[in-house]
Amino acid sequence: MSTTSGKTLGGRRAQAARNDEVILEAARAVFLDDPKAPIAAVAERAGVGISALYRRYAGKEDLLRQLCHDGLRRYVAEAETALDEPDDWAAFTNFLTRVVDADVHSLTVHLAGTFTPTEEMGRDAMRAGELATALVDRAHASGRLRPDAVVHDLGLLLEACAAVRVPDPERTRQLRRRQLAVLLAGLSSVPDADPLPGPPPAAGEFDWRWRRRE
Amino acid sequence: MSTTSGKTLGGRRAQAARNDEVILEAARAVFLDDPKAPIAAVAERAGVGISALYRRYAGKEDLLRQLCHDGLRRYVAEAETALDEPDDWAAFTNFLTRVVDADVHSLTVHLAGTFTPTEEMGRDAMRAGELATALVDRAHASGRLRPDAVVHDLGLLLEACAAVRVPDPERTRQLRRRQLAVLLAGLSSVPDADPLPGPPPAAGEFDWRWRRRE
DNA sequence: CTAACAGTGGAACGGATCGTTCCGCTCTGC
DNA sequence: GCAGAGCGGAACGATCCGTTCCACTGTTAG
């Protein structure tokens, strides 16, 4: 193998570099399945020892934080991509489909509270909120989103989809798409529908998860 | 206080009888909030010692089983009540509203797997399935339920509502009603709607929770 | 060729949690 | 007044889990 500082590395270095990916992937899979899985489960799933984990992350909290932040960035990225779509309603539905498929909700909200967030995460979360608002505004403009739906109804919607879980991941994805279809149908404007009940979900009502667990 | 074997008891006996209720209520509240809360939390919430608990139940599993069975019976009772309603669609929606309000789903599905079920529970679960099917059939007959919705879509729906959680219980109820409204709107038949995607949820797909945790 | 070392596996440790038991106390019912 | 039902809560033992530590291995610089 090449030993110089070229692109491809052989031996230990290469294995180490590959482990970076393998470990992150394993962590995603494990914590997606169970937000409070032990760290040893991640190592086992990755097929490495525990040391390989602690060499890369200061502790469990560090790993969780990174994972959550990745999820948040994914959310923002999907929103930005969706905003490029010319059709207002399609932008809205495509965004939700992508986010549900990627299980971003489990990576962000369900992991919150298990670590102290960074300031950058706060900024990203704010940006995420702005982008979501923009998507909802455009969906309203298209006339296909029922007028009494608000941004924070997305929180309910994503929670509902993330709650669908069966052992098989692919089947989970299918059932979530079905759930999403029902919810989107329910959020579509129809001539004379009863208005949605109760005070609509408000800004701070879902932040409680982000506060440090007691 | 009367000491004879009349209806009202005074002193210790009365306190003990009252504790029966208090403890069950506390257990419901605690395990509804967190399915794997420690038993001590129940005792604390009830304002009694741990002994008072173990005097009534052989162990945690016993308590959980009873709680879950109660939830199942409640589900059946609500379904039977709903079936008395003449209007087919109203029977369907009223049933769901009652079940969601009572948080029956958290009492049954979310507690499953933490104990070995009894045969009677199996029978009740089967009866619950039959009643739910009857309600869905009538809803279909009314023409207001979209034709491609199936019984087991109720599982998704209830899961979605149970997933809504905020610290305040009353607010939780409001938000769940809103979620339910969206879902019911989505399940309502409209002239030319896209069919729901994917193979519909099937019979055995939600039973995995009832299998003993590995 | 070899000494230093980055990278690793996994045993071991210490703390936390939780179900259950047990003992001593109180107050009732006879 | 006494036997005992009912109870509070400390104590115990079993897990579980995050983190540390050490011995080992293959690589790489010189």
Automatic annotation (TrEMBL), chains A, B:
Keyword Transcription: yes
Domain of life according to the entry: Bacteria
DNA bind region: 38-57
Keywords: DNA-binding, Transcription, Transcription regulation
GO molecular function, one term: DNA-binding transcription factor activity
Positions of region (Disordered): 191-214
Signal peptide range in chain numbering: none
InterPro entries (alphabetical): Homeodomain-like_sf (IPR009057), HTH-type_TetR-like_transc_reg (IPR050109), HTH_TetR (IPR001647), Tet_transcr_reg_TetR-rel_C_sf (IPR036271), TetR_SbtR-like_C (IPR049445)
Domain HTH tetR-type: 17-75
PANTHER family: HTH-TYPE TRANSCRIPTIONAL REGULATOR BETI, HTH-TYPE TRANSCRIPTIONAL REGULATOR RUTR
Protein name listed in UniProt: Transcriptional regulator, TetR family
Organism expressing this protein natively: Micromonospora saelicesensis
